[in-house]
Amino acid sequence: MAETVSPKKDDTWPDLAIALYERLTGHHAEITYELENFEIMVPSGTGPDATHAKWILNGILKIRARNTVA
């Protein structure tokens, strides 16, 4: 049976990404996203005065997870 990653009320996007990576590592898993005119506002920092740059992504983004520990 497949395991699920259940978000908690106080989870952040980085927490969810870390949890997903930890679940996939060792399973040689791959996640593929196909993007068309995907717009993302990328902050210059973490503070309230951070400026943002708009990135437009087109193409394929692949995320592979594997455990390289011998």
Kindly report the average pLDDT value. Answer: 79
* Largest beta-sheet details: 2 strands, antiparallel
* H and E order: HEE
Give the CA-based shape. Answer: extended
Distance between the termini: 27 Å
| Rg of Cα set | 16 Å
Strand content: 35-45%
Low-confidence stretches: none
Q: How many extended strands?
A: 2
Count of DSSP helices?
1
The amount of helix comes to 10-25%
Please provide a written account of the structure.
- The protein has one helix and two strands, in the order H-E-E.
- The chain is α+β, with helices and mostly antiparallel strands.
- It has a domain of 41 residues.
- A two-stranded antiparallel sheet has the order 1-2.
- The longest helix is centred in the first third of the chain and has 12 residues.
- The radius of gyration is 16 Å and the shape is extended.
